Each structure stands twice: as structure tokens, then as C-alpha cells.
Give the backbone structure.
Amino acid sequence: MASVDTAVIVVAGITLFAAFVNGAIGYGFSSLTVPIALLFYTNRILNPAVVVIEVFINLYVLLVNLSGVPAIWKRVFPILVGLLPGIAIGTFALASLQPGWIKFGTYAIILPLILIQAAGLRRPIRSTWLIGLPFGTALGILYSVTTVSGPPLAILFNNQGLVKDEFRAGLALVRVAESTVTAIVYFHLGLFVSESQNLMLVIIPTVTVGIPLGAYVIRRLDAETFRRICMSFDAWVVGFGLSRVLVELNLMESPGAYSVMAVTIFIDIYLLYIFFTVQRAASERSQTLWAPLTPGHRSGPPDRNPSDLTERDPFGPLGRLLGYVVMIAAIAMLVFTVSGIIRPPG
């Protein structure tokens, strides 16, 4: 087992890199930090430290992308409503389940999401409330247990065809809400133990340096290629972490457990091949076609009118009314769950 000093050095290094990536592409801090940090810490120690840091990171990203909020807030509102019961359920699971199984669940859920995102699958999504409410609940559970939500959010927003400013604003809006509510619930449940606070002190300086550095350097890099390489790094690390936890839980024996990592690497190399040959060539052709109409822009038509992409709720006003009812019920469920857990036995 690694010494405390080794764990601190590794966490400082990965959080610096993760902050750099977050500053460059607008997300990725927790999805890069958590898989490696879980090799040294349990979710109950790691999550509170990461969540508090993410509150400030997400606020920074939101402030930078405020111009996209007016066009996107109606779309993400159903997700914000669904987050509340999900965070309540996920926090209860975090406080109740055995740490080893939480690690297993974290790796097992994150890995396919990263590979799906890397594959670039696209299926148009039109319904706001019907998709947003259950998606928000699932996202709340995932985030409160793992502090990871970037990959599923990126998949959803890409499938909704958001332009760059809308994408970043929507991502920041959801992540500010989920990190803030999760931090409040963690605090009321007493999850901010001394180990988490010490870990937070290690992460703060790396984030302070990494985010502005990433925002500066990305101007000189191809953002899409950089994002895809980061996904590969993340997938390989998660595959390794999942293999390790399979051994720890006695679900598989070494070296057989590391076949999970080998399969992950094989799939990712194949997806990288597609990205750098087929998709990259198609992207360049698309950029050439759009160049006379959109000079200076690199990724398709930035002049799309956001109203043209606005999704129509098939239930109209009834759907919005249902959303408000669910929001009230979700808030009541969150309050009831938290108060029930923290209330001393009578």
C-alpha cells in the first residue's frame, strides 16, 4: 500500500492535470481526478473534497459562459429538477454502502460512459421534460456517489446539437447546481471529515494554477484532438481501476482481472483509429464547406439560431405544470431524506 506522501503527490499531480483540462475544455476535473484518486482514498473521503472544489470551478466556468445561459436555461431546467431526488438517493447510498462496492460501481458506470462519448454516437433528442426529469435524477445519483457527471452531460448536449457557448453554459449551469446541493447535503450528513479537509488543502493550489493555464494553452492546441486524447487517458485509467477493484473484492483473480483493462485499451485504440482517420477527414471536409459562410470558426455553423434548436414539449403547458409539481415533490423528498438521516434516534 502506498504511503500517505505518495498518495498526496499523486493526487496533487492528477488534480493539476485535471484542472488544466477543465480550464481548456470546460469540464473533466472530476472524471479525470476520481479514477486515480480512488486508488488511494475511498469515496467517502474523496467526494467531499472534490465537491467543494467543484463548486468554485463550476461557478468560474458559468461566469465565463454567462452569454449562453439565456438560450439554454429552459432546456436544463428539467434536469435541475430531477437532480434533487437523485442527490438525496445517491448520498444515502454513499453513507450506507461498503466503500469497496462504491468504488466498483464508480468504475463500472464511468467506463462505458467514457467509451460511448469517445465513440461520438449521435441520436437526436427532442423531448425536454420526458428526457430531462429521469436523466436529472440518474445524474444526481451518479454525481452524489461518484462526483462524476461530465461524460453523460456531454453525451446528452452533443445529441441535442448545442453550439459551443450553449454547451458550456448548460454544462456549467447543471454542474453548479449539482455540486452546490451535494456539498450542502454532505455537510448536513457530517461527511466532511478531517481527511477530506486535508485533501482539499492539497487540491486548492493545483486547481488555482491548472485552470488558468489550461484556458491559456488551449488557444494554441486543437481542442477536439486534445479532448479525445484526454478521454483515452481517462478510459485506460478507469479500466485499470476497475481491474484493481475486481481483485480487491475477490470477484476475479489477478492477472485475469486485468483483462478488463486490456479490452478497454483495445476498444479505445480502435475508436482512436476511427477518430484520426474517418471522423477527422469528415470534419476537415465539413470545415472546408462551412469556411465561406463562417470564417474563423472551427466546428460547424456557429450562427445557428438557438430558437431553431429549441425542443418542443409534446405536452405543452401541461408538461411544464407537471415539471413544477415534480420539482416541489423533489425538494420535499430531499428535505425529508436528509432530515431523516440526521435526526438523532429518539
In short: The chain is about 75% helix and 0% strand. The CA atoms of residues 34 and 300 lie 33 Å apart.
